[in-house]
Amino acid sequence: MSHSRMRLGCDIGGTFTDFVLLDLSVGKVHTHKTLTTPDDPARAVVTGLQELLSKVGSPADKLELVIHATTLITNALIERRGATTALIATDGFRDILHMGSELRYDVYDLFMRRPQPLVPRSRSYGLRERLASDGRVLVDVDTDQLREIAAALDRQGVESVAVCLLHSFRNPSHERRARDFLKHLLPRISISLSSEVAPEIREYERASTTAANAYVQPLAERYLTRLVTRLNGLGYQRPLYIMLSSGGITKAETASAFPIRMVESGPAAGVSAASFYGAAVGCQDVLAFDMGGTTAKACVILGGMPSKTSVFEVARVDRFKKGSGLPVRVPAIDLIEIGAGGGSIAWIDTMGLLKVGPMSAGADPGPVAYGFGSTEPTVTDANVVLGYLNPEYFLGGRMPLSIDAACEAIENRIARPLGMNVEEAAAGIFRVVNENMVAAAKAHAAERGVDPRRLTLLAFGGAGPVHAYEVARALKMRRVVIPLGAGAASAFGLLVAPVSFDLSRSYVTRLDRVTSHELERLFAEMASEGVALLGAAGIDPSEIQVTRRIDMRHRGQGHELTIDLNGWQVGDIDALRRLFYDRYRDIYGHAHEHLPVEILTCRLTVSGPTPHVDLPKPPAGNTGVDAARKGERLAYFPERNAFVPTPVYDRYRLPNDAVFRGPAIIEEHESTAVIGPGAEISVDVNNNLIVTLADESSQ
């Protein structure tokens, strides 16, 4: 080819690193998986890429685009493997990270543990300066004290500094002056400014976010630099792009400056894929269900758009208790994480009850069936015993599984202590992990005012298609969609996400005191900054779309609503007030129109065009379903409470007019779909499996 038309998406997960190679010149998609290398994640990327390129017979210099998602930032925060970090706050506020919100996330737990701040008090400094709440300078920056702080940072071997000064979101001049002064004295250190990382109201959340960004910035910069160097060594000389937690992508250089925005990049890529596949099957309202090796994630998508949030938590002390983690205030896809993946460990608690997760075997040593030395039974081991996974065809036969080892582990750790046989114990593991995911999905949907019964379940991830049928059945959903290459769908999601970036500015004032000029200025400043960022990524300004939102609340309330400003004309304050009341009424059923309203934060998203991708078509429908049948094996189905002879099909040979009924097991290289009795299965024109569940309420 004289001009490259190949694009690569690469997603590092907790167990596997996934690759999707899209050959636009012939409309073909190639997928690949390799085990993640936790000690050096870039090694798995390079190894897997070499394997994939060798398989398709193409050199790396034919790639026109590489987009990457990684768990590196999340893992660094959880495992506390970041840089030696210091905090510089306004004098009198050096303890902001330790004081936190002063709330207990569990008022009844006498032994409650709080998350330890990323910066100890010994490296927290107060700087003499002061801005008023409107940004006016009250006390100028004390440069003599700043010189003393710089000397202390040097003695302590500080690698990165978070600067979070009071009211800097209204006036960033003091933070910028502190950065320039420190950079002159200590040119080797990284510096994160709260006015750039999270320019929003709420001091603790802003300081926590800035500290987290500073903590992982040197690590992210080294990793991305090393990865780019290795890709260059393979022959790829173009820019590397990174998926952000908000679902957009940006150049590696921007991601290096704001690595905290990468903290949920992998799950965001999965939601991007779910939105794409939902639109492909003509369904705008879906529940994205992503079950991988370590965790499962769920996200409600309405009208083709996933819900977003501006604040979430990382590194929770108690994984499923809100408030037990470090708050991060950056734009992110609003999803729920469940401690349930293929590698989730089954165990018996002190009450003698069977539990699954949240501990995971990860990639090393992995499930017992992998044969890497683990003795703790996992969900994957149960799926092998129940007949769902073919031990000889895992990863397309590249990684055989040991059913004997899986049986022995379940026998020793679960079956014998509970007085049951291995198959009963495996069925129990399967049932428990499904109930965990169902309960979390119900809560996630209910909190957003959505009835899951009216949604379509879009399942992906290596383990998602194995569990999707039972999860949908428990949620009383009628349809499941499983795309081709579901095991690497998150990597595919990287290729269908637009280049985009989110910006925000806090502007706290009563709505009846707002001037249209000030709002215009704020949105114009953010738009100018965003267009410049996308322009640096090669996006034509004429193709950039700008989306505006605004956080509002009744004056005196502790929380706010984010209002979409679609069609709103800047300056029409009455229309803005009506938008708030309408949104409030939609959520709570009524609106207090007699109460004053205030603005908190203006938000803006700039995005380039959504890439156009044609999905590969299924084979012509003249061979029949039987031609795709590989054989038959016994598989357990809870609705029959028994092992049932189940036809096994080759996913790649199912024709475009295929229509058949369950039970069925449909195998492809990266995942296996398990469909129960009574369901109808078809293949659509885009190679998606469409599963229609029986209406059990009428039976």
Question: Which helices and strands appear, and what pairs or packs with what?
Answer:
Blueprint: E1 6-12, E2 16-23, E3 28-35, H1 41-56, E4 63-69, H2 72-79, E5 85-90, H3 96-99, E6 124-127, E7 130-131, E8 137-139, H4 143-155, E9 160-164, H5 173-185, E10 190-193, H6 194-197, H7 203-234, E11 240-243, E12 249-251, H8 252-257, H9 265-280, E13 286-291, E14 296-302, E15 305-306, E16 308-309, E17 312-314, E18 326-328, E19 332-333, E20 336-338, E21 344-348, E22 354-360, H10 379-385, H11 403-418, H12 422-447, E23 456-460, H13 464-474, E24 479-482, H14 489-495, E25 500-510, H15 516-536, E26 545-554, E27 561-564, H16 573-588, E28 597-607, E29 629-637, E30 642-650, E31 659-661, E32 664-667, E33 672-675, E34 680-683, E35 689-692
Parallel strand pairs: 1-4, 4-11, 5-6, 5-9, 9-10, 13-23, 23-24, 30-32
Antiparallel strand pairs: 1-2, 2-3, 7-8, 11-12, 13-14, 14-15, 14-20, 16-19, 17-18, 21-22, 24-35, 25-28, 26-27, 26-28, 29-30, 31-34, 32-33, 34-35
